[in-house]
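hey so i finally got around to running the thing on that chain from the lab meeting. sorry it took forever, my laptop kept dying and i had to restart like 3 times. anyway pasting the input first so we r on the same page abt which one it is
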Amino acid sequence: MSSTDESTSNLESLEQSDQNQNSTANIEQSSKKLYAVIFKSKRQDANGDLYYEHNDKVDEKIRTLPGYVKHSGMRHPETREGMTVAYFDSLEAIDKRRKDDEHMDAKKLAKSHFYENYSVEITEVIDSYGWEGK
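ok and heres what got predicted. didnt touch it at all, straight out
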C-alpha cells in the first residue's frame, strides 16, 4: 500500500470514527424522545381546490397542538405521490391528534375526495443529523 493510499485509508477511518462518536454523543445528550408520523399518499386528480383549502386548515391546526414539534412534506407533481413527516414529543400527543374531531372528519374526506390511497407509520426517532451546506 502506498503512503497516499494509507493516508487516505487513515483519514476515512478517522472520519468514520468521528461520525460514530458524534452520533453516539447526540443520542446520549438527547434525553427527550421524539416521534415521527410518516404519512404517505397518492392524491386523486380531482377536488384540487377543496384539497388545498382543507390542507391549509390542517396545516394551521397541527401547529397549535400540544406536543407538536415540526412537520414537512413533499409531493411529486406528475405521479401525485407524496409524503409528510410530522414530529411530536410523545405518543400521547400523537394519539390525541389521531382522536381529534377535526382529524376524524379529515380522514373521511381523505378517503372519499383526496387520496387514491394512503398509509401512516409511527416511529421513534433514534438519531438525527444533517449538513447545512455552505
